[in-house]
Amino acid sequence: MNKLTIMLPSSLTVESSDPRIKTYKVGQIARAASIFRVNEIIIYRDHVYDDAGFIRDILEYANCPPHLKRHLFPISENLRFAGVIPPLQTPSHPQSKVVKVGEYRMGFAKGEKVDIGIDKPARISRDSRVEKGLVTVRVTSCKPPEVEIIDPQDVPFFWGYQVKSRKSLFKALRDKRIEKVIFTSRKGKIVDVPLLNELKSYIHGQGVAFVFGSPKKGVDEILKDEGHSIEEFDHPVINVIKDQGTATVRVEEALIATLTIYNNFLR
């Protein structure tokens, strides 16, 4: 499966000072990223307003399976209103304490035991490497519960996203691991059938990163503040919302609109 990345500014919460509303806003982004099977979320620093630590905490907390939160997240002011985050209900978030042989789970390993969200810890099989901390496992026995540790990339379906930080948008765009980049902007070309065909040829089955601006500044303005220009990059600039009826489109709204088009026509 080709990698899907989204790049978001550390200033995406700039419009709200209420931590409850900020938490819900970032939770909506986590939910959208999961719906559209985003593999990687890159938070690039906006020097005007940097809320990267808060955004990262909320995104990672949302992505974490419920039974593992107590292992991985100590009490934190950033997570004070975590209860308003909508549940993701992704495959890595089990809805049952009953497991089946062959089922994949995320767990927290300690010694030869691992918490996989059932009534008692599962035993790590003898031929599996023993690790400490967060692991991905495959169930090999139910009675007694036993698992083998596997590489998360071996899971054959969506297994959540990774969150990374970059010091600037320019540095994020210089990452050679990203195959194709598409900027989103109100000033971009309106997405229509001819442009969809162009974008499909541009992506050509490769991984792609969609870049989003902040509530107050577009991608071009953020790059300008960093001493660069959007023209330095030979990447498409698109507008996914034609004739918008509001003065601005929020990041989480632009994200859903953009990923809907990608999922339905370009993936």
From TrEMBL:
CDD domains: HsC9orf114-like. Pfam families: Methyltrn_RNA_3 (PF02598). InterPro entries: Alpha/beta_knot_MTases, NA-bd_OB-fold, Put_MeTrfase-C9orf114-like, tRNA_m1G_MTases_N. Gene3D superfamilies: 3.40.1280.10, Nucleic acid-binding proteins. It comes from the Archaea. This is RNA-binding protein.
